[in-house]
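Late entry, written up from scratch paper. The run itself happened at the end of the previous shift, but nothing got recorded in the book at the time, so transcribing now.
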Amino acid sequence: AVNAMIYMRNITITTAKSATYLENVGEGSFGYKGLHIDLKLNETRKGMAEYRLYAEYPFELQIRTVIQDSWSILDHKIKYKKSIPNSLKRRINTLAALFELADREFRAIRDATRIELEQTEEIYPQIEAETKDAEVSASDGGDPEQAVQPGRYAPLNAFFFLRIAQHFFPKFEFESHKVDGFTQEIISLKPNISRGKFNFYLREKFSTIKQYQEEFEKSGERMNPFTMMRHCLYAGDKEVFSAILTDTARDRFDKWLNDQKK
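Output as recorded:
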């Protein structure tokens, strides 16, 4: 996005062909989608010495999605596409349709993901309500997941994880692939964990882990938010989440906890 903004400040758009532009598209023909824009340098850029030789020449910019570009590469590799047997035409048509479907589904997934993230921005009060149910059950020695009122229980997923994590670490930039991987790791250790229970672990143990962080970082090492959440989960349920820390990290943390009791 930043590169696009820099680029657009230095050029002038003369024409833009339809976003559904297809090369050689027609019945019995094959092509690929892409946006084609005719451009020229703006007056500021024209005056620069390095552009004077070709300042007056127009040029074309072709914009495609990754999948559209992949199909364009394959399209060029298919040497015979016109006067060919119908069975081969059908195969090429099938391949073209699969690429178009993949492009459409990818965009649908992207848009749905954005909507999910926007919706989870507003639900933290609901998660807090579930957490209170979990707290009451934990104090009574019951199963927190069973104590959540009907309609309130929601299993933990990457979107809920991110919203909860951002509440505790508002200044940290969470990378999507790390969020996804860590969420899956948590679920693999506790398959029925709810978003409220995850929030409960963090809220109950966060101050303890902050104290441990201060002691831990005196050696010059650092604890990032993911490491802190690992310690919160382990402190919340050592039996279930014993594998969420390495042996060295677990032994070091247990020693610190024991020292605090003395």
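Residues 18-30, 144-151 have pLDDT under 50 and may be disordered.
(Scratch paper discarded after transcription.)
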